[in-house]
Amino acid sequence: MSAAGVGPLIPAPGRLNARGYVNISEEHLLPYVETIVPEGEEVNFVHDHAPIHDAHVVQDFFDNHPHILQMPWPRKFMDCNPIENLFGHVVLEWENGGERNVGALQAHAVQVWDRLRATPQVCQRLVASMPRRLREFIAAQGDVTHY
Asked: Whole-angstrom Cα distance, residue 136 to residue 147?
């Protein structure tokens, strides 16, 4: 996701490992970035530094794409990461009482993602809220905020 809106929603095949993360980044992240950022312009990229993100193969991917700048980000700090808020939309809209399996979850996620795609202002607001979120995090001395 970016201030331009959500990108493609790519289901991870089973448990995602570092090589799978790189494959998804090569096949989907790079083409998406090319559609929203003028050539030669840098991109600030946020991920939560889960163990796979620190793997050598992942770091090699970012080293080979120096225009994608990894923003320093506290480990597993979800409060301020805008993508976590988007996933929150998926969770909040999950209907109780329906089928609860991987297929139903994927179908639901695609449906919510399509609605988010039609409302790019949701992403614009999340990105615009980042300075405020970070100020609150600093004021809370790194503790959890209300986000």
From this structure: 9
Q: Kind of pairing, strands 68-70 and 43-45?
A: parallel
**Number of separate helices (H) and strands (E) present in the chain:** 7, 2
Domains and CATH numbers, the chain: 18-139 (3.30.420.10)
pTM for the model: 0.78
On whether the CB atoms of residues 45 and 25 are closer than 8 A, the answer is no
pLDDT band at 27 (very low <50, low <70, confident <90, very high): very high
Quote the CA–CA distance of 127 and 5 in Å, as a whole number.
10
Compute the radius of gyration of the chain from its Cα atoms.
Answer: 16
Task: Please report which confidence band the pLDDT of residue 64 belongs to, taking 50, 70 and 90 as the band edges.
Answer: very high
Euclidean distance between CA atoms 56 and 117, whole angstroms: 33
Instruction: Flag whether pLDDT at 97 surpasses 70.
Output: no
